[in-house]
Amino acid sequence: MYRLIALGLGYLLGGIQTAILYGRLQGIEIREHGSGNAGATNTLRVLGKKAALIVFIGDVLKAAAAVMIAKLLFPDTSLLAGLYAGIGAIIGHSYPLFFKFKGGKGIAVTVGTIYFIDIRIALIVSLIFIISAWTTRIVSSSSLLLTGFIPILLYVFYKGSPNIVEIVCLGVVIAGITAYRHKENIARLLNGTESKLGSKK
After folding, report:
1. How far apart are CA 183 and CA 128, in angstroms?
2. pTM of the model as a whole
């Protein structure tokens, strides 16, 4: 039961669309500009660095809230509860109930989830993302790397847990959601047409 509660809690909080709400305060519908994605990267392209930072922080905080509340509600299974809440937040962000199920790709939400699940894993995947983004200037491939390492690191740090199979599977789900949400980016990466940081496309 705690799994469903944590998942539902995360979904509702994840559905708070920072990019859409901030864009409307600026008089635009963010999903009608740039890539059409309601996330920090598209906000950066459309509205600039300050707006992107605000959106990123907002998306991180809603995931953090979901994870922390789930952990407090279910202290005996805090890791699993936190992971389910985080996955719920990622799904809610990607397919928000109150915004016609058209949201963002969930990377900032994933970051917020992992930072409040395990700071060690968060710091490692953040470093991986930074190095990749710095060298390639491609956010999508860097995001795929970030989430791809999550199940691996969950195994490394929790391999002694009796719930290790479920823990790793949830990490795979997070990576899988990212891959699915980036399927168009993956196609562009394969044919060499993916946008880089600084591009308006």
Report:
1. 21
2. 0.89
